[in-house]
Amino acid sequence: MSKFDTWLHRQAPTRDSFERSRFLRPFAQRVFHPALWRFTRRSVPRGVALGLLVGIFLLIPGVQIAGVALLALPFRANIPIGAAMTFLSMPATTPFILLGSVYVGESVLRLNNGSDHFYQLIETSAPLSAWGNYVLNEAPLALVQGIAGLAIIAIAAAVIGYVLSAWFWRWRISAKWRRRSKSIASRG
């Protein structure tokens, strides 16, 4: 087992930690199916993609892992990898994800420029009536744009994560086979 494999197995959540989760107890029989806990060439990229998608889109720490575990059932994704990938949206990265989602949402949908008006209200120390007008008229559209941007970022991250992890898996397996064939050739 390589150093990376050892590190990965130490960092990945264990089956026991999931069994103790009160969110997953009603689904325990399905979630703890052995196929969802194996590291295969198909389940690992699916777990990476699912973990990034749920981890970035939900941004609620306890719900992310439960969401990955439940969505792993129909997608036959690796649960430990998916759960580990949700940790990429931690408190240090969340503000950047949210700012990016506002930017992407405004760029794609172009419903209104809610963030510019928001900053303008802050800079001018606007009265409460101006803030009330903003909350009732412009904030809902800005929220829709932010959610759309978050969905776009989550889907893009999931696709990129899937492709990179599938490529890494193939590279790793081919490197093992090359080492094995060199070892056999040197003996023979």
Which helices and strands occur, and which strands form pairs?
Layout: H1 3-11, H2 15-19, H3 28-31, H4 43-58, H5 61-75, H6 79-85, H7 94-109, H8 114-123, H9 128-137, H10 139-187
Helix pairs in contact: 4-5, 4-6, 4-10, 5-6, 7-10
Keywords summarizing the entry:
single chain, 188 residues, mainly alpha, 10 helices, 75% helix, elongated
Helix segment tally: 10
The amount of helix comes to: over 70%
Question: Strand portion, in percent?
Answer: under 5%
Structural classification: mainly alpha
Uncertain stretches: none
Mean pLDDT: 85
What is the N-to-C succession of helices and strands? HHHHHHHHHH
Major sheet description: none
* Rg, nearest Å: 22 Å
- Give the tally of β-strands: 0
Shape: elongated
C-alpha end-to-end distance? 24 Å
